Structures are given as C-alpha cells and as structure tokens.
Amino acid sequence: MKKQFFSNEKDGFYGTYYENPKGANCAMIGLFGDDPNDFMAKCGAKWLHKNGVNVMCMSPDVKNYGHVNFPLERIETAIKWLKSHGNKKIGIMGMSTAGMDSIVAASYFPDITLTFGLTPSDFVWQGFEQGEKDGCKEWPIPDASTLSWQGKPLAYMPFVYAHPEYYHKIEEETKGSGDITRSTHLFIDSEKSREHTEEEMIKVENIKGKLIMVGADDDSFWEAGKYVRRMDKRLKERPHECDYEALTYEHGTHFVLPETMLRKALPVGLKFVMKFIFKAAKDYPKECEQTRKDIDRRLSAALKQWVAE
User: Which pTM was predicted?
Assistant: First the structure.
C-alpha cells in the first residue's frame, strides 16, 4: 500500500495516509485503537480500500495507546489536509474507546459526513494511560479527560476508582469470567456514583450526514448496547440533521467489527481466537458471527452510498 507519514511535530497530527490503489476521492479517518502502522490499522485500511475510499489512520503518538487530553484539533488538521489533497468527502470510523472519539469528533466538525462509532459511549470519559505502572496495565489520570479542545479538557465522567484500585477492579471482574478482559463494573459503578452532567454527554445531534452507532449487549468492556440506545433516545428527543442507525445486538462481544475486516486480520482461526478472548463468542459463536456479517453489510452499504452521492 502507498503510504504517507505524518508527525505531531511537523504536521500537527500523528497518522499514516493509505491511498487507495484503485483511486478514490473520498477519505475515512480510521481510529482503530492502534498505532497507524500497527497490524489492525492496516487491516482496517484494507477493508476501507475495498469499499472505495482513501484512509488516514490516526492515534495520539508513536505506539501511544493511552487516551489523555487528545486534542481534537489534530483531527481538524487531518481533515484540512485530506480536503486539500483531492478528497471531496471526509468520514470517520472508530472502534473501542476510539468509537467514542469518532462520535465526539463528528459532533465538532461538520466536514465529517459519514461516522461509524463501534462500541461508543454516549459520554466522554476520564483520561487513562496504558502500559506498566505499579503492576497495573492501565490507570486513570487525575483531572484529565480523554479529549481536549482549544487547550482545555472536555467535560468527562470521572471514574469512581483511582489508581491502583481502578486496575484491581478490572482484574477482579476478569478473574474466572471467561473473558480475557472484563471491565463493565468500572463503568457501572462510576455511573452509579453520580449523575451524568449534560456537559459530558456527546452532542450527537450536531453530527452531519450519515451516522451509524454499533453496540452489543454482551460487550465485556462496557455497556455498549445501553449507550447506543441512549444516543438513539437523545436523537429522537432533539432536532438533528443526520440520518442515523442505532444498531444494538444481543450477541456480538466487544469486537462488533465487520466480519471481512476481522478475516483480513485472521484469515485462519478467527472463531478460535474469538472464543479465547470472549466468553460470549464461545457460548454464542453463530450469533456473534451473524452480528459481524450484518455490521459488514450495513457499513459497506453506507460507504457505497456515501461515495456515490
């Protein structure tokens, strides 16, 4: 794949541009929770190429998997570059924590006219780092948000647990669950501890064009299905311009990704790996596969229509 690299220092954002080898005049920003040059990002780019678009994969910085006051201006800068280099339309696709990031970005920037939020929350979270600290692989950052705008952290839901209890709670819930990671209590307990403020809720009603939100009720990380239904309710109660689909599935795990995208990552042994990572995939393999295939059809159809319009 033809690539072009961007750095925060030189270009104002960290990313890799994967130009569609067949040519395209629309681009998707890919937030795959990975470094833009990691394997999953490349698989995401290939899947998007198949659907007729160029791809700009982005992340905070080189091999940086944390989410601490990420400046939305970096996405704005990437949009400007894409528009000045032959892309007439800009979309965004995010998965996991970046599913939230993608929806927030779309609510800020009207140039984004196609938004895929996979496992998004309907609120902004407290910032967190990943790596190794005091035997913990993840920890919350005091007084920090996941995202920032104009130099200020966005309003966020604080986690009820501080370091190191935060990660210990994840370990406790994961133990014996059959999931490689289970962290739903972190979010459930944090939501119970205080009511959400309107400031920290994502203004999905500001999103333009087409919006697709996807969540499964058996997500082992957070209550993605519930969050998608709340965004559906918010949109029904507020004036909005976007055409949206709020897709919730009983079975699908945290990996509510297009089936053929995952097949690019794991052409052999996908079902085995899914069963190893998620108990729901072990208990309901056919249902989870059908969910991924349905998502694949819907996202591919949305891309085809968007490119053609």
Answer: 0.97
